[in-house]
Design a protein that fits this description.
The complex is a heterodimer of chains A (291) and B (321). With 291 residues, chain A is α/β, with parallel strands linked by helices. Chain A is built from six helices and eleven strands. In chain A, a hairpin with a 2-residue loop joins strand 1 and strand 2. In chain B, strand 3 and strand 4 form a beta hairpin. Classes of the chains: A alpha/beta (291), B alpha+beta (321). At the A-B interface, helix 1, strand 1, helix 3, helix 4 and strand 7 of A face strand 1, strand 3, strand 4, strand 5 and strand 8 of B.
Amino acid sequence: MRITRKGMEAGFLVSVIIVLTAFVLIAGTIFRFMSSAEDKQAETLCKDSIALRAATSLNVKETEFRVSPVLCKTLDKKISGSKEEVESQIAQKMARCWEIFGEGSYKTGAFDNTNLFAGGNKCFMCYTIAIDESSDFKRDSQGISGQEFQQYLRETTYDKKKQTYLDYFQFGGGPGYVVGLLSEEGIKPGRGYGIAFKAKAQDSEGGGDLLLGGGLSAGIGAIGFYTIGIGGSLLGGGAALAGIGAYSLISDLITDTKSNVDAIMLVDLSNEEISRAMNEKCEFVSDIGGK
Amino acid sequence: MAEFSFEKIGGIVLLLIILALWLGFYYNPGGAFNKVKDFSKSISVPITVGSETVSGQKPSLPAAQSQGVNSLKKTMKAMMNAKQTPCFATYSDNIFGSGLPDMQGASITLATGKDKDGVEGAEFIVNGGKGGFQEVSAEFIEGMGLCVIAGSESYVKSFTDIYLNELPWNEKIQRYQPRHYIPVNSLKIYYSDSLRDIDGNHISVPEFPADLVNDEGNNLFDGGILYTPDGQHICFFPTIQGDNKCDWERLSQAQIYGEEGQTVSERLNQLRTEDIIPSTLLENDPEGLDDDCLAGDTPPYESVNIINQIRLGKLLTCEAR
């Protein structure tokens, strides 16, 4: 066989193209893997730091002291898919956040260094989630309402724990509850959401009654998902209090000093009232990612 | 050769003597050392390592609350299958106060909406458990709507015109007018001890302003009564505190002596103008009905009290198809 110079050049070019294409594909895969690995690493670090804090706490008589730091960072996630897939991804992230911070099983709030001065409204934003458009779920589609998502949590089994998401949050580890603060648009592409862990304000033995003081706060223990209407007003469908703005309700929810139970929250960060109330009323524990 | 002075030697000997005495004092069997040792043994400071944990339990309600809530839900569902409407039903044997037991640590949220198949109805959500924050149960009831006999003076007046009188049922129905109940999207029932310093079960309506129904304490003094105008909407009765007498009792007296063809309102106005009855009598309150017109107090009951009228057969009770 006779090999011409032109043939050799063409062959070389094809080889280069194949090698470059392979490199791009492999690099992309590795990069995605590393990003995912970084997130998993951050989650593991956070979970381990919380567990270590609890494991190394000193209890003198009835006073607890913790010295080990919280090493957690907020992770930014992008998700997409059909409505059911988006629901599933959000629910899984909520469950992961709950698991990381101890599933509500610590008697003293996860962020308190001592139970002598326990209290306050300490929160940590586990994830901020942006939902991308997909062929099955577009920006102008009807969003997933609070009621729908609440029903999803009630009915869907969290495979890892072999119980529904709602049961897992409420009694899978320690006691807990779920709160959703969504706008009228619900959960849909083009909006940003936050999944936050709100630590208990007191230890679990400190009473179990609804906060009853003050007309505004009475009955605040309405659990589930609140829909915030235009202008910050509350709409029905699970909402509980009348004639008050979203800001007031969220403030009361967060600052309720009898909330001696940990909570997992899903909030619509694209809604100004919700975002403002969360930022002003939650004492966000510092994120090591910001350091 | 080092020089030794007697002073130095004397000083060293003195120190040795003091040391010997101190050692003897401290370490002899009955000495201070053993006493310190015994004392320190008696001080016991428990120190443990590791956070205490708590375990969760499936949230539930105390038996009395659970029974009350279940009875309410069952009655609401049964009313939707009523053979004939409008009609009344009782969900509780407690006709002397709130139909529900004290709901401390628990709440009921009712909210209209659609299920995942797009069917309209209402959710019946019960909360309780730890802090009252946990969901105990949730059920979607297809086809159900919600309403209240409150929220507007004219609507409350219409209701009282139709039903709070001594007429038999077939004559009451002739007075029927559609605008005597207000459909609502959601309701909430919980216990409050802070609204106007009155303890008791409270019903709130999120769509209403904060000062309409929602700031009335103990305003579910309903005698366990529900009403349906159409077999779909189930109406609750927010109440106002009465003076142990259903004012409509006096209305019925006024009716008897009214002129022929004169409406109840006309007769009332006439009596007010003539100062026969106080001007404030029988004013319809948008906050709801006088609780004496609902819950039975002690016998003998007000003649137009709803519980009493049900007993006398002057109000139709819901019967299943």
